[in-house]
Write a structure and sequence with these properties.
Strand order of the largest sheet: 1-3-2
Shape: globular
Number of helices: 5
Distance between the termini: 51 Å
Order of helices and strands: HEHHEEHH
Radius of gyration: 19 Å
Number of strands: 3
Length: 115
């Protein structure tokens, strides 16, 4: 598990992005024991910002016995999450010879039919 990404994910889930230390520690412990998927996800997100340092970059600030995510931290987390793994997988599975940015794509299952 990537600690810094986990902290950002936890803080963004709290009202006003602020959590006191006991709550933050409890949530980190829960996430650390929640299985491989969570750990792998935080590592993938962290790989999108290899020089991530939540404090020196001003993404999280310490105050009043807890930590608070800043607007810059919210933006950084959004940036890390912008490229969804499913989007990357779909693009990598498409045949290269037939794939072209201008090529029309078939409708998705369940989309409205013409006529």
């Amino acid at each position: 598990m990537n600690f810094q990404v986990a902290v950002l994910k936890i803080l963004v889930s709290y009202p006003d992005g602020f959590a006191v230390m006991p709550d933050l520690k409890r949530d980190l412990a829960v996430l650390a024991t929640s299985g491989r998927d969570w750990g792998e996800r935080t590592k993938r997100l962290a790989a999108r910002m290899p020089d991530l340092d939540i404090f020196s970059q001003g993404l999280v600030e310490r105050l009043n016995g807890g930590w608070r995510i800043t607007e810059k931290g919210r933006a950084g987390l959004e940036l890390m999450e912008a490229a969804r793994p499913s989007d990357v997988e779909l693009r990598s599975e498409a045949p290269r010879a037939e794939s072209s940015p201008a090529a029309p794509r078939p409708p998705l299952p369940g989309s409205t039919r013409e006529g």
